[in-house]
Amino acid sequence: MATEAHSDEGGLVFHPMDQFIVKPLFGDGPVGMFTITNVTLWMALSVIAIIALMVMGTSGRSTIPGRVQSIGELAYGFIYKMVEDVAGKDAVGFFPYIMTLFMFIVFANFLGLLPAAFTTTSHIAVTAVLALLVFVTVTVVGFVKHGMGFLGLFWVSSAPLPLRPVLALIEVISYFVRPVSHSIRLMGNMMAGHAVMKVFAAFAPMILLSTGLGLLVTPLSVIAIAAIYGLEILVAFIQAYVFTILTCVYLKDALHPAH
Amino acid sequence: MEGDIVQMGAYIGAGLACMGMGGSAIGVGNVAGNFLSGALRNPSAAAGQTATLFIGIAFAEALGIFSFLVALLLMFAV
């Protein structure tokens, strides 16, 4: 991987994947189980930012909300409505969990967009834990609520009888692929976006110095960076939204497994 | 020499894997385009279906992300 030092290369070179290297915050020892790394720092920062938003938003409550309170209320109402609409009225007991997921992902994504920041959600280790937690929660909820009846999720009773075993196999496979696609979707989007931004950012000075066309191409490249940054802001929100809404969909499946 | 051939194969494979992204692009465009044509016929029902739109886009997009991942694995992990 890209962990080796690039000191032996001269001239202008760029390494778009270097921004994803996990390194210790203090010193350069090996990364162990409890080493404080840049991932730890940026995760802590996003948690602090969420706490700050929610505490400041709810401390000075007023009938006419201020700016911070408006944003807090907006986020709360947005997620509450999503849980109610997608997962059903009886799923609002899971609202705190889903709200936590959404706030963490959206803050991690947005903080990762700051220059020189580290995007924690661009690592499969982070998103896989989030997705596996959702998977385990949903499966346990399904079995606790319906017992063996939860397996009816895989038995499509509306299909003709000869087709049902085949469909059951497909349903089982798609059920177990869920955590994979759930985590890779978030991680892939974050990583691809940031890598593309770095590629364009390195392309601008490289072409300026290397060819005579540089003066023409570099402004275009800089405009492209700005455009891609705008797209990434959109993607950062949409991916958090998609992660949350898929959690709601899976939860609905667990609460109402009958087809 | 043998390592070079393996390297070449990995790079060619990474390039081929990127074709999958084109397929997922067609899929996402299909979902969004059909949503828009439906929404323009009945704009009052469109607002309630944006969640469905995003779920559909997410499912179509996941397969493109898979091919992107295969390309990345070939480039950096093999």
Automatic annotation (TrEMBL), chain A:
It holds the Pfam family ATP-synt_A. One of its GO terms (molecular function) is proton-transporting ATP synthase activity, rotational mechanism. Its main location: membrane. Key component of the proton channel; it plays a direct role in the translocation of protons across the membrane. This is ATP synthase subunit a. Keywords: ATP synthesis, Cell membrane, CF(0), Hydrogen ion transport, Ion transport, Membrane, Transmembrane, Transmembrane helix, Transport. The lineage of its organism: Bacteria, Pseudomonadati, Pseudomonadota, Alphaproteobacteria, Rhodobacterales. The gene is atpB. It comes from Roseovarius pacificus. GO terms for cellular component: plasma membrane; proton-transporting ATP synthase complex. HAMAP family: ATP_synth_a_bact. The keyword Ion transport applies. It is a multi-pass membrane protein. Belongs to the ATPase A chain family.
TrEMBL record, chain B:
InterPro entries: ATP_synth_F0_csu, ATP_synth_F0_csu_sf, ATPase_proteolipid_c-like_dom, F/V-ATP_Csub_sf. The keyword Cell membrane applies. GO terms for molecular function: hydrolase activity; lipid binding; proton-transporting ATP synthase activity, rotational mechanism. One of its GO terms (cellular component) is plasma membrane. CDD domains: ATP-synt_Fo_c_ATP5G3 (cd18182). It is a multi-pass membrane protein. This is ATP synthase subunit c. It comes from the Bacteria.
